[in-house]
Amino acid sequence: MDFCPESLHYELLAEVGEGSFGKVYKAREVGEKQRLLAVKKLNFRWESEEAGIPPFMIREVALLRKMGYFNHPNIVKLLDASAVSIGSALDLTLVLEYIDQDLSTFLSKAPACGLGRDLIKDVMQQLLQGLDFLHTNLVLHRDLKPENILVSSRREIKIADFGLARIHTYNIALTPGVVTLWYRAPEVLLNSVYMSSVDMWSAGCIFAELFLLRPLFKGYTEVQQLQKIFEVIGLPSEGDWPQESPILYSESLGPRGSCTNLLPNLDQDENDLLSHCLLFNPNRRISAAKALTHPFFVKHGRFPPNDEPKLLRFCDQE
Ligand SMILES: Nc1ncnc2c1ncn2[C@@H]1O[C@H](COP(=O)(O)OP(=O)(O)O)[C@@H](O)[C@H]1O
Ligand SMILES: [Mg+2]
């Protein structure tokens, strides 16, 4: 099966990433353009006897390609997608524009005293614009984290690794324990129903990380992840707890009461936006579109030259 009338030709240069289902390579286009490309190769094995590409996979890749046509500046561009199936094995190849680094690498190179406030604002604004676009098109990311956000040399933020959520979910049972819990919304940890607000939770975790330069909630089991969350946002009321969850409500999961000043040293707007991203109840959590109109983005213009709080204030923590 080929999704493109004319496939791109390229040579692989180096491996740049290894995920749960395959590898990502840096590549160079052969021919006139010589563009740098990222080639993502995913391999799947089916349990079922039926050969061929499952229809849901065809739908997902078609959706990815559709998203590519819009050319949104904050979504990594998919240039080609092809799939080959041999018996119960399937090789899916995605060819993407190459972007210099991911946000995790970018943050690891940040000065120890922190990122400038204008930079944090710019990164968040672009991230939310990308998310708003995905959500408007009814696409959930479901695994938003610094490794899945790319930062170009011109400081453009591009969301990557999206649209495969359903394909990944299908395979996740086969590869347990590979997915980080740190950016996961409580309703996902609690096995409850979820919607686009899961990505806003992750965006909130990333917002905090831009200040802290370390993940906000670092749990290693679902229950521990929830405990870390409640230490900061407070234990929700029992009425907000999803009834169908296999994890039962318990006072021992965290301290009571909700707190709106989640992080010390953030100003009022920063804390307000953060606390609206990190609301336990997904129905009350802020949407990407709404977040973009928050005073954090619209109130302040540029800081007067002497008032720029350039270096953040977390040097004394951890
Ligand atoms: N378009 C790209 N340009 C450059 N590097 C990329 C690109 N896409 C992904 N990468 C790198 O490869 C890693 C894995 O890619 P990703 O799409 O997240 O796959 P996985 O499903 O394996 O997590 C990313 O964390 C990033 O460092
Ligand atoms: Mg990834």
TrEMBL record:
Q: Which Pfam families match?
A: Pkinase
Species name: Xiphophorus maculatus
The protein in question is named Cyclin-dependent kinase 21
Does the entry feature the keyword Protein biosynthesis, yes or no? no
Write out the entry's keywords from A to Z.
Answer: ATP-binding, Kinase, Nucleotide-binding, Serine/threonine-protein kinase, Transferase
Q: Which Gene3D superfamilies match?
A: Phosphorylase Kinase, domain 1, Transferase(Phosphotransferase) domain 1
Catalyzed chemical reaction(s) = L-seryl-[protein] + ATP = O-phospho-L-seryl-[protein] + ADP + H(+); L-threonyl-[protein] + ATP = O-phospho-L-threonyl-[protein] + ADP + H(+)
The Gene Ontology terms for molecular function here are: ATP binding; cyclin binding; cyclin-dependent protein serine/threonine kinase activity; MAP kinase activity
Q: Does the keyword Nucleotide-binding apply?
A: yes
Q: Residue limits of the Protein kinase domain?
A: 10-297
